[in-house]
Amino acid sequence: MAESAEGLGTIPEHERILQEIESTDTACVGPTLRSVYDDQPNAHKKFMEKLDACIRNHDKEIEKMCNFHHQGFVDAITELLKVRTDAEKLKVQVTDTNRRFQDAGKEVIVQTEDIIRCRIQQRNITTVVEKLQLCLPVLEMYSKLKEQMSAKRYYSALKTMEQLENVYFPRVSQYRFCQLMIENLPKLRENIKEISMSDLKDFLESIRKHSDKIGETAMKQAHQQKTFSVALQKQNNIKFGKNMRINNDRILEERNEIVLKHALEEEDENEEEVLTVQDLVDFSPVYRCLHIHSVLGSEETFENYYRKQRKKQARLVLQPQSNMHETVDGYRRYFTQIVGFFVVEDHILHVTQGLVTRAYTDELWNMALSKIIAVLRAHSSYCTDPDLVLELKNLIVIFADTLQGYGFPVNRLFDLLFEIRDQYNETLLKKWAGVFRDIFEEDNYSPIPVVSEEEYKIVISKFPFQDPDLEKSFPKKFPMSQSVPHIYIQVKEFIYASLKFSESLHRSSTEIDDMLRKSTNLLLTRTLNSCLLNLIRKPHIGLTELVQIIINTTHLEQACKYLEDFITNITNISQETVHTTRLYGLSTFKDARHAAEGEIYTKLNQKIDEFVQLADYDWTMSEPDGRASGYLMDLINFLRSIFQVFTHLPGKVAQTACMSACQHLSTSLMQMLLDSELKQISMGAVQQFNLDVIQCELFASSEPVPGFQGDTLQLAFIDLRQLLDLFMVWDWSTYLADYGQPASKYLRVNPNTALTLLEKMKDTSKKNNIFAQFRKNDRDKQKLIETVVKQLRSLVNGMSQHT
């Protein structure tokens, strides 16, 4: 039962496997057959049985099919046999027809082949023409490129290269000649870059050589424009009468007219031909090089190279020559080169886009300006000639105005000019110090004589002196000497010289007025005052010259107000303005007068000492000569003549000099008596000395200089008079009794002085009176002297202890 059941289950499986074998590809039969062997045992045998049964079924079906179609097959074979004979006949006919056609078509074939060959040639020619038409523009453009390179039209050549690369080469890129051209273009571009850079280097070298010419032209044009504008302004001022107030301004008016005439002449001469920077420099290499690098895409590289080279040139231009300060040409060459450099840069800035920028030029200018200021500050310090400093100032002004016209800030240059102005004033002061010294050396220190009205007018045209009495009759003498008008004229010339530096500094009239007054004050208070003091202290200047110097300083002091008016007329700034600086002439000349007065007192005392040194007293004489000493009479006569000259001095000066002389004479005579080298004095010598003092007192009472009240001048000899009266009268009891009393007769006699003189007389008495001890009167006198000496010593000792 089990085996039958198992057999029933296996049969459907075998049928399925057979169906798969019949329906699938032979390549897949293997797995199907493998499944037969993988099943239950005896499955193979059963499958083979099933397979044989299936084959038998198929054979039966085939046999049925053949039996069904066999009659039709037989009929078909019979038909084919009937047709075979007709087919052979047809074959013979076709073969014959084909032979006849072949024979007849040989000529046609030959002609057809010719036609085909011609058509092929025609097609090839058409193709060649089309290709040539495509290549010809490329070749023409390349030929054009060669011509442009030969003609040095590099920018156009680069544009042609762009067209070749972008338009023409893509059409013929398959051809070999095109590849050669493509490979050659980078070389051409590099050649163009090298050639353009070479042109640029030549251009940079050219502008370096021509910078001074460019700068000179630019500065000349700026100077002409500025001069013409200033001249027109001055002409307008003259027309409105702004500079026509007093006679001093006639010189200024004439100078303004000369400046205007000169400016107009220069303008007419240079109006015909006005050169620009383009006329002096060919900028085409820069344009070409910039365009070339723009096309090549290396514009930034070119800009960096250009700026770097120009900065190097700027450093070279800013480096001055070591001897630049010696001549104005050195400064002019320095300035023209700098101006030429920046004029070129300004032109490049405005005609190119991006090659240089405003920030770049400002940075370059600031660097240059710092260097310029340092150079000018260093080199100008060596300038000792005011004319050279003034020319330097004018060059700096033109330099600044020129560059300011191109948009460069120049305020620092004008600040530098204020420093140079101080140096200019110093050089002027040194120059005028020499001028003043020469004037003083050439002066005769005598009043100026005039014998006619013409001579009088000549003097007052030089110096503002007013004296109605002097105009009435001739000959007359001005109180001052020749140096006064000369100094006054030179002070005005100094003001003009100082004004020259103040011009064109873009400063207001108030500032110019202040500068002129300050520089004039320096001239008066420092230079002129120093020259006067040096003159006063010179050994060869005598009392007469000192008197004349005092008179001269008085008139120069009075002339200071005219100098202030002179400055006012130049600047049109009223002296009543709050901030107007005043001239310090009053203090300057007052100091000089005080110095001269002191020198008068000193020299007068020295002269007195010279006379006193001629004294030759016989200090042991027994009786006086009966007349004053000769040296003293000569001294008094000298003093009389000197004090006669002093009548031209201010009263107080003459009185002070006279009082000082008398006091010094009195002191000298007193010192002569008390000289430590003088050991003995006789009474006869004291009497002779008293005669000399009497002459001094007579001289003092004769009022050698008017203005003394009462016996004021005689009081200079009061110490001597009381001392000599004490010894002449021998009134020692009164002196000792009244000593220290305000009403004492011998109040001015110092005990120490009296003791010194008395001891000298005591020694003389002992020496001259060897036998005095045998005479009672002489013995009593000697005892009296000794007693007085003891009392005076005790008095002096008491004074010392009290002190």
From TrEMBL:
Residues 413-760 form the Exocyst complex subunit EXOC6/Sec15 C-terminal domain. Coiled coil: none annotated. One of its GO terms (biological process) is Golgi to plasma membrane transport. It holds the Pfam family Sec15_C. Keywords: Exocytosis, Transport. GO terms for cellular component: exocyst; plasma membrane. Residues 50-219 form the Exocyst complex component EXOC6/Sec15 N-terminal domain. InterPro entries: EXOC6/Sec15 (IPR007225), EXOC6/Sec15_C (IPR046361), EXOC6/Sec15_C_dom1 (IPR042045), EXOC6_Sec15_N (IPR048359), EXOC6PINT-1/Sec15/Tip20_C_dom2 (IPR042044). Belongs to the SEC15 family. PANTHER family: EXOCYST COMPLEX COMPONENT 6, SEC15. Component of the exocyst complex involved in the docking of exocytic vesicles with fusion sites on the plasma membrane. This is Exocyst complex component. It comes from Trichechus manatus latirostris (Florida manatee). The gene is EXOC6.
